[in-house]
From TrEMBL:
Name listed for the protein in its UniProt record: serine C-palmitoyltransferase
Gene3D superfamilies: Aspartate Aminotransferase, domain 1, Type I PLP-dependent aspartate aminotransferase-like (Major domain)
Record-linked InterPro entries: Aminotrans_II_pyridoxalP_BS, Aminotransferase_I/II_large, AON_synthase_class-II, PyrdxlP-dep_Trfase, PyrdxlP-dep_Trfase_major, PyrdxlP-dep_Trfase_small
Co-factor(s): pyridoxal 5'-phosphate
PROSITE patterns: AA_TRANSFER_CLASS_2
Native source species: Zea mays (Maize)
Encoding gene, per UniProt annotation: LOC103652945
Amino acid sequence: DDDVKQGYAPICVGLEDFFVRRLYLRVQDCFGRPIASAPDSWFDVVERTSDDNNKTLQRTSKTTRCLNLTSYNYLGFAAADEYCVPRVVDSLKKYSASTCSARVDGGTTKLHTELEELVARFVGKPAAVVFGMGYVTNSATIPCLIGKGGLIISDSLNHNSIVNGARGSDATVRVFRHNCPAHLEKVLREQVAGGQPRTHRAWKKIVVVVEGIYSMEGELCKLPEIIAVCKKYKAYTYLDEAHSIGAVGRSGRGVCELLGVDPADVDVMMGTFTKSFGSCGGYIAASEEIVQHLKHTCPGHLYATSMSPPAVQQVISAIRVVLGEDGSSRGAQKLARIRENSNFFRSELKKMGFEVLGDNDSPVMPIMLYNPAKIPAFSRECFRQKLQVAVITVAFPVTPLLLARARFCISASHTREDLTKALDVISRVGDLVGIKYFPAQRPKI
Ligand code: PMP
């Protein structure tokens, strides 16, 4: 197909697995059209970041732009922010792009300690430590917090970085049904000796790992209920806020703020700087003891080059904007905008008849396609419409085989007009591809 040859499909078909890509090369979409002609067509290169806070994507294959509903750019800090950019440029001049050293070997700049204090203050914990990559924050930290003789109870839809961290820990791992406090309790009860809460148990330590917003479901964690269960069974809680920090809560402080949970009730708060703050890296915020323990034992801290100083400065500046410490009300406006945008987009999609996953306030919005053959058809039709819309489609093995979906990520930099136009395209595509599954028409799987 021409669209595929010109590289249209790749940007919206975000299939992450080589095997699945190969599979799709051989099959047809739901209109019986061959899906792709060359493996390369599944990739596209973004030529440069657009000058509108990454609201649109500018791609090499076409000079036209498409509305960016793919990036995790929740607060619109990706690129060209008037407060962040000059400060990031200064930090580049002062510290260069890399420290070329691990934190303990001369790789700690003033910016790193400033960011750690700021993150701790922002999320409401006594201390924090930052890492060069969000993925590593989970995969390297979890094995330092729990090991042999310990039990990790992980939500069934936790991110791969958590899964790898748990696997690398030597602890026993059990999985509980996604976002289901009752099933978590069942698993905990089975694991506690005698089946009685608060009695002697076989495990040295139990850690329950959950996410604030689930990135493929758009769902908020049932955090208050999960914490209640953890308290009852004296289990520790580990909360990954990659998609919720900065994105939800009245002042952007994540699911704790949104759901009225005291941060003191979450033992370990993890987050990334890649979604709301337009940068890269991750953090752990916890008690002074836990943070010191990680600083002394975690290989991701001891043996990895520290976070790039300009990336650190970007996060510092973005958090200051969110807190209003830049002297403007832009932070508050961004937070209000992302909430309004998300709730507007979600309710409009529902009215149109799409099956939308997730909760109000969440900027992550998957709509169900179910049939994997509808993925390329959906992506392609999106691009055929006059307004080009870049979306991510998600399929097996990221989701079960018959639960394919398209996912929209809403940003504070989208205007109501952008979203209205995108909804119009999505509605037309939904009719063409046959994915307006009003409740009565939903496939029973
Ligand atoms: N945790 C979750 C829940 C994520 O979705 C991601 C990445 N999307 C990560 C951790 C890893 O973060 P990063 O991309 O910043 O390395």
